[in-house]
Amino acid sequence: MLKPPHIFEIPPDTEKDTAETFAAVNEALQRLSASRVERITVSGNLARSKIAWKVATYRQALLYRVVALGSGSALCWNDKNFLSSLIIARALVETVALLLDFENRIARHLSQEDLDGIDKLSMNRRFGSRDADWVKAHPDDAAINVLTLIKKLDREPDFSGMLGHYEGPLRTMSPQLARHSRLVCNSNTSVGTETYSEHKLQGKLSKLFGGVFLIVLAEHAFNRIDAQVNEIAEIQHRINPIGGE
Fold first, then answer.
1. Are 93 and 150 contacting, i.e. CB atoms less than 8 angstroms apart?
2. What is the pLDDT at residue 179?
């Protein structure tokens, strides 16, 4: 049996809007966790369409990843391991960007009943790589840079601001930036001292907002993909029924 996820502990002095946001995140994370399955079998609509099966199984893999990242970020934050929590939140942005792009592309292919396009997309997402030798042998499976996906989504009204947060508050978590020292120290230039604390981010729950709130959007995307799986199966069965029925 799958374990329930860790959820964010909300301090009593948290601002109302922030507390409500994280309550919604916690609820979505728990629902997503409960919706995971341990096995997908070729039955029902999935027995009518191999393409639908590919989409459904990839969806489940992304679902596990979103739940793991959300739960991991919450666990670290609750344990006051703030740096790790924020790094995980940044990975969550990347994963949800991949999810949203996948769902949007399927929707466009479905509008034209382009099952071949959906098949190629699902294969690319399942086996995509940036390894030069792999891409040379399988040019259709070249992986898309995640920053490209984030920039693309940022241009859409529903997701505007995603890039700014990814390259703003969450980017300060990168060890390549000099600003990361601000996460653990306070400088007093008048006396030439720096005071360090691993708890400097305590109470800064809002820094996580742009990352973990995407869990709520991810839940909607997963629900839409569920409907898309059924639609794919119906179209494929109509056009080319298994067994020539």
1. yes
2. 52
